[in-house]
């Protein structure tokens, strides 16, 4: 818990201080992250291949849009794509490490359910990660991109289920993080629904007035 929370805070601070620099040199930073992830694959268990680093990048990505308008939200939203790509790179490394482990030791077809759910989350994540790259996003229609990225909710749900089923000492931390996110999203959905309802009423009132 301390590792993940500490890393999350570190990424937020770096974004607040270096947001423009991160955006400008994002390709170089992606390359560095990829190199670290590859090296981590060859090592024994560490914070990279155990998934802690990947998760720590996704936490600010999850909560960025739920924050109130202001400096912090502006900065996080400005680097949300970069954070998501970093999280994806390290999450793929984590998934490959445990996939290889399950195959090497011959228990892939009788692995715990959380392994399969974790792998499913990576499958959902891949197109989201690829289309988070600016060069790819620019070639997509805005509506198509938004529709595709609604699957991020499915990804977060699978990650939450994966972590809860592991039932580690960090279980309470995971429940709090994803529970808060679920509450934030529910509130945002209700507010959006309320706004649409009010707009619909205004349109009806105006149409009656014109008639």
Number of contiguous helices: 10
The proportion of strand residues reads: under 5%
What summary fits the major beta sheet? none
Evaluate the radius of gyration.
Answer: 20 Å
Low-pLDDT sequence parts = none
Structural class: mainly alpha
What is the 3D form?
globular
Rounded to the nearest angstrom, the distance between the terminal CA atoms is 62 Å
Number of strands: 0
Helix content: over 70%
Average pLDDT confidence is 91
Secondary-structure element series: HHHHHHHHHH
List keywords for this structure.
single chain, 211 residues, mainly alpha, 10 helices
Describe the model:
- The chain contains 10 helices and no strands.
- The chain is mainly α and 211 residues long.
- The protein is globular, with a radius of gyration of 20 Å.
- The longest helix is centred in the last third of the chain and has 40 residues, at 171-210.
- It has helices at residues 2-24, 26-41, 52-64, 71-78, 80-104, 113-130, 134-137, 142-148, 152-166, 171-210.
- 80% of the residues lie in helices and 0% in strands.
């Amino acid at each position: 818990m301390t590792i993940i929370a500490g890393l999350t805070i570190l990424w937020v601070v770096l974004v607040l201080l270096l947001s423009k620099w991160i955006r400008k040199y994002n390709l170089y930073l992606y390359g560095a992250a990829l190199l670290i992830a590859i090296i981590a694959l060859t090592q024994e268990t560490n914070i990279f291949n155990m998934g802690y680093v990947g998760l720590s990048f996704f936490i600010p990505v999850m909560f960025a849009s739920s924050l109130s308008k202001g400096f912090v939200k502006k900065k996080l939203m400005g680097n949300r794509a970069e954070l998501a790509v970093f999280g994806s790179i390290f999450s793929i490394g984590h998934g490959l490490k445990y996939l290889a482990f399950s195959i090497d030791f011959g228990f892939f077809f009788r692995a715990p359910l959380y392994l399969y759910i974790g792998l499913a989350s990576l499958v959902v994540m891949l197109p989201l990660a690829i289309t988070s790259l600016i060069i790819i996003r620019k070639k997509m229609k805005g509506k198509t991109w938004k529709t595709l990225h609604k699957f991020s909710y499915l990804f977060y749900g699978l990650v939450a289920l994966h972590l809860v089923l592991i039932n580690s000492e960090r279980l309470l931390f995971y429940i709090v993080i994803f529970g808060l996110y679920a509450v934030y999203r529910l509130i945002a959905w209700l507010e959006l629904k309320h706004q649409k309802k009010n707009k619909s009423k205004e349109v009806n009132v105006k149409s009656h007035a014109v008639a």
